[in-house]
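Case study.
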Amino acid sequence: MSVRNALGRLLLYIVLAAAALAIVFPLLYALSISLMPPTEVNTFPPRFLPSAPRWANYAEVARTVPVARYLLNSLLISAAVTLGQIATASLSGYAFAFMDFRGRALLFALFMSTMMVPWEVTLIPNYLTIRSLRLLNSYPGLIVPFLATAFGTFLLRQFFMQIPRELEDAARIDGCGRFRFFWSIALPLARPGLLTLGAYTFLNTWNQYLWPLLVTNTRLMRTVQIGVRFLMNEEGMQYHRIMAGVVLCLVPALLILLWGQRYLVRGMMAGGVKG
Amino acid sequence: MQAPQARVRWMERVEPYLYLAPSLALLAVFTFYPIARSVYLSLFLTDPLGRPRVFVGLEHYANTLTSTFMQSMGVTLLFVLYTVPVGLLLGLVLALLAHQPIRGTRLFQLIFSSPLAVSAAIGSTIWVMLFNPVSGVINYLLGLVGIPRIHWLTDPRWALLAVGMVSIWLRLGFNFVLMLSALQNVPDELLEAAVVDGAGFWAKTRHITLPMISPTLFFAAVVGVIHAFQVFAEIEIMTAGGPSNATNTVVYRIYQVAFRQYEFGAASAQAILLFIVMVVLTYLQFRLGERRVHYQ
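After joint prediction, the assembly is written out as follows.
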């Protein structure tokens, strides 16, 4: 390798490392603060690392704020919305991809046209609906409005379209019923699609902000995101505890990213608008 | 013998609608109806329970065009201008850097995509701490190079920029990952052929890589503008629209009008206007951008 090449490579590493540090710094700093003794937070000049990690911050924030409950709420809501969307979207996506029926083109156009409409437009009537059903501060109020989306239907339709229709014809000649074909052949074949929709929907629901802010006002019904937002009110300037809460709420999302980045990316490229 | 066969045929005809029924029912209640209802509400004065009371026609729309709504629209456009081009450029540069064939790129790729997992609420909370004018790290680091203290979130000259910085950071993971996967799809033979012809890194990037990934760049720009138009959580957490409305974007205003002042009719009109502006902007982007995009 020539000297010029080696030098270029070194330079590249330096730039990469600097960029990586700049990007990940807020997260590392939050982690560092979450382990600082109270006396080392809010000092000037600021400290970057705790003299010794103080794990008690986590126990303290969990004692004053129901962090475990927030995590449970978010987990429950995200899982329910994800499973629900996979169920509704695989059924409707399959119908659009594999079945002939009257009004198919019209219904499909109707579905697709709603993908353009931003959530601000549906927000107010949906809030009024949920309130009039007395579903404020309830799991159904946080889950049901998101159980079906045109985007999910469209995404899974695209995956089902890749399955050759001759496969269905052959299966039916062998006496396989329609639903059985959907359930035991088409669904397993569309697995990457289900995972794509799943990873994307889970993270999106986990990170939802405005809707849970609107429909919850009791402490125990808050999701992680709303809980984090109110940490600042509840803990004042106690940044070591606030950041302990932040880190606890960040970990599940990071795990999803690590596990499903491939699927996540595909979902975002298809549905980037709602990202 | 006829009856069962007829029943089978009837089932065959009904079956598709059964598959569609759950989606259709939910979309009808939570998407189709609300869209129509928003349009309807926007023509009325509503009571605090959201019931239409007095028909006012297009008055809300007319009011909106002369009120401070236009100021919010200006703030929003400025926010789009601050965040989208810089965000795209940073994502592209990072992707180009992390796409080089050297060891350890996987680690860098992971780090560069990490903001993807950070929600706006969590990111904003962290940055409120970083922006603290007295104990915050940002002012401390700037102080080291002699820049005096900046009141990031309370100075009208800086607040929108500060929120914009956070938004760019939050969005960086998405932009990076998008660009990287586009780069990975550029055929190697094409680049190798260019190298044989004597092209250096810049020539290769300018004449092959960029044209090849231009559809992704265009997609990221369109989606980025729509996303930036809808900014909410960062504003709500970091500035609450202040100081003196410097960060009072359209969606934050809609939220205020609907859920603080309980004027659901006026807020609906503003939401529909926002939608129209977004459609027009997207259309313009397609008109102006598509010509420069190279599709294979």
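Observations recorded in class. Residues 203 and 253 of chain A are 7 Å apart (CA to CA). Chain A has a mean pLDDT of 89. We will return to this complex in the next lecture.
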